[in-house]
Write a structure and sequence with these properties.
The protein is mostly helical. The protein contains nine helices and four strands. The chain is globular and about 50 Å long.
């Protein structure tokens, strides 16, 4: 169950593991082929970010990953299975649940168990479970082993703008959808939903002028927005009551989302079934009977026409 404050506002807990991998090993965790492993969910937007970086940078052969069961049972947490499509058993630690991975890293750990998790096979511990930091590491610290080492989604000359955009998008979109969905009072929901759609309206205007969010090139800011947008009409409009407007009601945001979907390896990281089944069947406090809606059917391969904004 989500943690809410007395006003009924959803409060996201801080992540607990915040070490860094560096190319030179100065952090104590040196980048290497085969040393690190990601535990992810195809349903989770935060974990989805890391899969996008693996594909975009060409790191799938350097860093392995395990996909948890899309069904999240509160009493059990994230589990491993091979009985559902694209879900995999834990062949690295042979654990039955992600809680066991956390306790293997820290026997006294009793906090929130979340994905993604970046695991160090050599030191047998969790390096980091904060998606924003993991994608920065994947972008820069594994270039020696990447198929696309020259691709830089966090270039130094744009970092200030990217950081500011990330803060804006996190507060107004990434976390705002959860503040809508898990609000336990009308006032908390009203504040959250107004903030969400004010931000989407502003992004719609911004993206009418530029193809990407920052510097007219693909950056981590786009990665972080995309994983929420691609889920918006499938789940957030309905189960999280983010229904003032749909993504498809925003001409520029919808075209932008299709543009990113059609970029390089991104499409193969999007799994409609995992996303819809997870939200509609796991969140029994919001959907007690676990019924998964049939729609909407979205055509992400429809031409987006945004190439002209790159000129």
């Amino acid at each position: 169950m989500p943690l809410n404050n007395p006003k009924g506002e959803f409060v996201r807990p801080e992540t607990a593991f915040r070490n860094r991998i560096t190319a030179d090993g100065s952090s104590g965790f040196k980048a290497a082929i085969g040393r690190y492993h990601l535990y992810v969910s195809l349903a989770c937007p935060w974990a989805h970010r890391t899969l996008l970086l693996l594909g975009l940078k060409g790191l799938n052969q350097a860093i392995s990953h395990t996909v948890v069961d899309w069904l999240l049972v509160p009493a059990e947490g994230w589990k491993f299975t091979d009985s559902k499509p694209k879900c995999t058993l834990d062949t690295v630690n042979n654990c039955q649940s992600l809680r066991e991975i956390y306790n293997k890293a820290s026997p006294d750990y009793s906090g929130r168990v979340s994905v993604p998790v970046l695991w160090d096979k050599e030191r047998q511990t969790i390096v980091n479970n904060e998606s924003a930091e993991i994608i920065e590491m994947l972008n820069s610290e594994f270039n020696e082993f990447a198929k696309h080492p020259k691709l830089d989604l966090y270039p130094s000359h744009l970092r200030e703008q990217i950081d500011a955009t990330n803060d804006f998008v996190y507060t107004g979109v990434n976390n705002a959808v959860y503040r809508c969905g898990f609000a336990s009072s009308q006032d908390a929901y009203d504040v959250a939903v107004v903030k969400l759609f004010e931000t989407l309206d502003e992004l719609e205007t911004r993206l009418s002028k530029t193809r990407y969010l920052v510097g007219n090139q693909l950056t981590l800011a786009d990665v972080r927005l995309f994983t929420t947008l691609v889920r918006f009409d499938w789940v957030y409009v309905g189960i999280f009551k983010c229904d003032v407007r749909r993504l498809t009601d925003y001409p520029n945001l919808w075209a932008y989302c299709r543009d990113l979907f059609q970029t390089s390896s991104i499409a193969e990281t999007v799994d409609k079934d995992h996303i819809r089944n997870h939200y509609w069947q796991s969140l029994k406090q919001l959907n007690p009977n676990g019924i998964v809606p049939r729609g909407p059917n979205l055509d992400f391969l429809q031409p987006h026409g945004r190439e002209k904004l790159s000129k």
